[in-house]
Structure formats: structure tokens, C-alpha cells
Amino acid sequence: MPSVFIKTYGCQMNERDSEAVAAQLVAKGYSLAKSEAVADVVLLNTCSVRDFAEQKAINKMKNLVGTAKKDRPGQILGYMGCMAQSRGKELIEKLPDVDLVLGTQKFHRVAEYIDDLIAGKRAKIVDIDAEAKSEATIREHLLNGSARTSVSAFVSIMQGCNQYCTFCIVPYTRGEERSRTIPDIVAECRELVSRGVREITLLGQIVTSYGKRDPSLITHHSSLSPFVQLLDAVHEIDGLERIRFTSPHPKGYGDDLVEAYARLPKLCESAHVPLQSGSDRILKLMHRGYTREKFLGIVEKLRKAKPGIGITTDIIVGFPGETEEDFELTLSLAREVQFDNAYIFKYSQRRDTPAAEMPDQVPQNIREERNHRLLDLVNEIAARKYDGFIGRRVEILVEGPSKKNAARYTGRTRCNRIVLFDGSARHQGQLMDVKIERTGSFTLYGDPAVVNL
Q1: pLDDT at position 28, please?
Q2: Is the peptide bond before 247 cis (omega within 30 degrees of 0)?
Q3: What DSSP letter does each residue of 14-56 carry, written as one string?
Q4: What are phi and psi of 29, to 5 degrees?
Q5: What percentage of the chain has pLDDT greater than the value 90?
Q6: Positive or negative, the Cα torsion across 203, 206, 211, 214?
Q7: Sequence-ordered strand ranges (E) for 67-124
Q8: What is the DSSP letter of 424?
Q9: Are 317 and 324 a contacting pair, CB within 8 Å?
Q10: Chain-centre distance of CA 385, in angstroms?
Q11: What is the 3-state secondary structure of 217-248?
Q12: Which long-range contacts (CB under 8 A, 24 or more apart) does 139-146 make?
């Protein structure tokens, strides 16, 4: 059977989709190639959140087309995912050597369509139509190809987004929110645990909106939100040690979810709370639905419910109309919250989004300068927080050997910090304590021998 290579751009949702597509293809008899240079089929799973991600995928495909013409005639080339959804047929019109363009609700059709292309039944395929119940079709996992994924796994609980932030193209590429049932999700989680998975991360575009648009998923005799009901159900799975989730929205951190951190031992004390801006004026332009004060209140509640919880965030700099005063409000909020880490993005115009047409677009050089200033602050805060772990004893879940040094093994604390230590294959999959001896750049270094004396 032919071999397939999948290159993934973007978020954890895209990583999960690529994993499921690979598993489906393996189940049909395809092999997974180690690189595009030796593959019969190359698929790019694309991202549209920023223009940079789109241009990387487009340039990569141009290079693949050129190489295929010279070295691998007959190689099948395809786009999947968000950029495929938003651009559709345009991608083949601009690059006629592309064979397949597949939208975000069609990942489960990949094997079928590749079969048709290889057999010559169809010359080109573009499918970006919506498909009912597609949210429940991505269930397959590849757990044996990587030490990391055999210990922890992503489980997609929903698709789509109804938030319509003015800067974001995701609602247009992923569609409206559609949630799977709790029994269906729990069954997938149980299967993963039976195969050795000890940590599960629940995935959704806005994961805390799970079930809110589907009355059939709501237990009317419960005062808990559908998402917290799902957390309770997954928490009951024997053999599962840890639960995480991403990506939430600040509005989703209701009192029941905050209390779940104190109530559910398996729910890791790590919360991602995307801020985007510290300015109320900019938050309103972004259509975020909360204020600076509300955001600070959420963080305070989380830290009260679970002392030591790791708080991370997303921040956009250079949103249209952002003044120096607005940016200073973001800096001051970052100082006040003391985030454990922050993912900082320079605003990127996305076509057909309201923000792209807003006046007062911030010049690129100012976006760059603000990005550097905020990044310096975040790194300074994070370094102090990491140094605070030196001498402490922490529990880690060992994921496997380090990518950079096979003699070292890597694990993750409950508050989501990476720990490296001198270990061996016997440690893989273990929950173990280590004593932190030193720090690196967003990394802790531990010694299990000291703990076990």
C-alpha cells in the first residue's frame, strides 16, 4: 500500500485531527512515511489564525509541487483543515498540481478520497461542505508511534465556535458549535485508558462552551454546566490519573468550573485563561464579552480555589486602534496577574473578519516593538516563578525520552511545567516525585534519586 506523510500547522485541534487522519489511513493499510521526500501522498493540515501560518503552508506546497515534478511524478498532494476550508477551490486554481482540498468537517473522508485519487477514479477533489455529525467522527488514535502520545492523549469533545471575536477567522473555518454526547466521549476516554493512557486533554475551539447549544446534552436536574458534568463523568474513569482541557474562554469559568478545581483531584491545577488585551476599550472592539475587572476576578477565584495553580494566557498586541495607553494597560495587567506563561501574538489581518476593516490599523513596526516589550516582561516574570521551584518536590507524569537528549526523560507537573531528569524506559508512564535542582528556559531539571533515598 502507498505511504502518507502529514505535516501539521497550528493548534492542538489540528494536531489531533492529523493524528486521527493518520490512524484512519493506517487502518486502511497505508504506511506512514518519515518525510515528504519518500511519501506517495503528502497532506498539509493547515491553519488560518494568522497570515504567517497560511503563507508557510502555501510556500511549502509550492516547494512540494516543484520537487514532485522533478523527483516524484505521480505523488498526490493535498491541503486539509482551516485554510482549505476558507480558500477551497482557489487553492487548486492557484496551484493546479494540488489534487485534494478538504475542509474541517471532512477529515473522516480522507482515506476514501485518497483511494479514489490513487485508483484514478477522480482527478481532483475539493470538498468543503458542512456535514452533520462530523464532530463525532474523529475517534481514531495512534498511540504506538510516540512515547509521548501513549501516556497522554487529546480527545476532541466538540467542533466549531460561536464567539465571533472580531479578529478571528475560526468560526468561519470550523463552523458553529457542535458537541458530542457525554457517553460517546467517556467511551473514547475509557478505550484510551485501557491502552495505557494516563492523562487526557479535552479539546474544543471554546471547550468551556461544551453542550450549551444542545439541550439534549444538558441534565436538567443538575445545576452544573454541561462542561462540568462532562468533567465529572471523565473523572470517574478508573485508571485515568489526570485531566486537562483547552482552549477555554474566560466567560466559561463559572463558579461550578472554579469549584471543580478544588473538588476533582484528577483535574490538574493548570488553567489557560485567554486575556487578549488588558484594555476594556480594546476588549470591546474585539467582542470578547468581559472586562479587565472581570478577568482579574476569575484569576483571583481560581487561585483561591486551588493555591499554586498555573495560569497561562493568550495576548494579542497591535489590534486595530490600540494606543500606547491601551498597551500599557496590558502590561500592567500582566504585572498584576503574574502569568506563569503567555502566548503573545502580533495582530494579523484575516480577510472577511470585522477587525480587518477597522480604521487605525497599527503599523507593523509598532506591533513588533510592543511584542518584544511584552515578551520581555512575560519572560522575566516566568523566570522568577520557575526559580521558585528550586529545592521543591513535585509530582510528574513521565511522557518519555527527551527529543533533544535520549539519555534524559521528560515529564510534566500538574501545573503544566516540563521537567527533565536522568531516567530510563522503566520510568515511562509513571507518576513519580522529583526534586527540582535547577531551571532552564521554561524547563525544570529534577533528580528522582534524591527523592527516593
Answers
A1: 92
A2: yes
A3: HHHHHHHHHHHHHHTT-EE-SSGGG-SEEEEEE--SSHHHHHH
A4: 105, -5
A5: 83
A6: negative
A7: 76-81, 100-102
A8: -
A9: no
A10: 24
A11: HCCCCCCCCHHHHHHHHHHCCCCCCEEEEECC
A12: 139/20, 139/188, 140/19, 140/20, 140/23, 140/24, 140/27, 141/19, 141/20, 141/23, 141/192, 141/195, 142/19, 142/22, 142/23, 142/26, 143/192, 143/195, 143/196, 143/197, 145/32, 146/400
Torsion of CA 69, 72, 73, 74, to 10 degrees: -130
| Cell of residue 272, nine digits | 489557560
Distances (CA, A) of 105 to 17, 84, 176, 181, 260: 10, 11, 11, 17, 32
The C-alpha cell at 170 is 475560526
Dist. CA 138–CA 136, nearest whole Å = 6
pTM of model > 0.85: yes
Burial track 63-86 (b if 16+ CB lie within 10 A, e otherwise): ebbeebeeebeebbbbbbbbbbbb
> Helix (H, G, I), strand (E, B), or coil: what is residue 159?
strand
- Residue 334 backbone class (left: φ over 0; alpha: ψ -120 to 50; beta: rest): alpha
The string of DSSP letters for 288-346 reads ----HHHHHHHHHHHHHHSTT-EEEEEEEES-TT--HHHHHHHHHHHHHHT-SEEEEEE
Query: For residue 320, which of 360, 279, 366 has the smallest C-alpha distance?
Result: 360
- pLDDT-derived band at 51 (thresholds 50, 70, 90) equals confident
Q: Is the pLDDT score of 370 beyond 80?
A: yes
Arithmetic mean of pLDDT, 309-337:
98
Lowest mean pLDDT among 89-103, 128-142, 225-239, 385-399: 128-142
Name which of 396, 383, 398 is nearest 443 in CA terms.
Answer: 383
What would the mean pLDDT of 22-49 be, rounded to a whole number?
94
For the segment 75-112, what is each residue's pLDDT rounded down to a tens digit?
Answer: 999 999 999 999 999 999 999 999 999 999 999 999 99
Opening angle at CA 346, ends 63 and 387, nearest 5: 105
Task: For 129-179, write each residue's pLDDT tens digit.
Answer: 988 888 888 788 876 544 344 799 999 999 999 999 999 999 999 999 999
Are 283 and 292 a contacting pair, CB within 8 Å?
A: yes
Alpha-carbon gap, residue 41 to 6, rounded angstroms: 8
CB 261 within 8 A of CB 305: yes
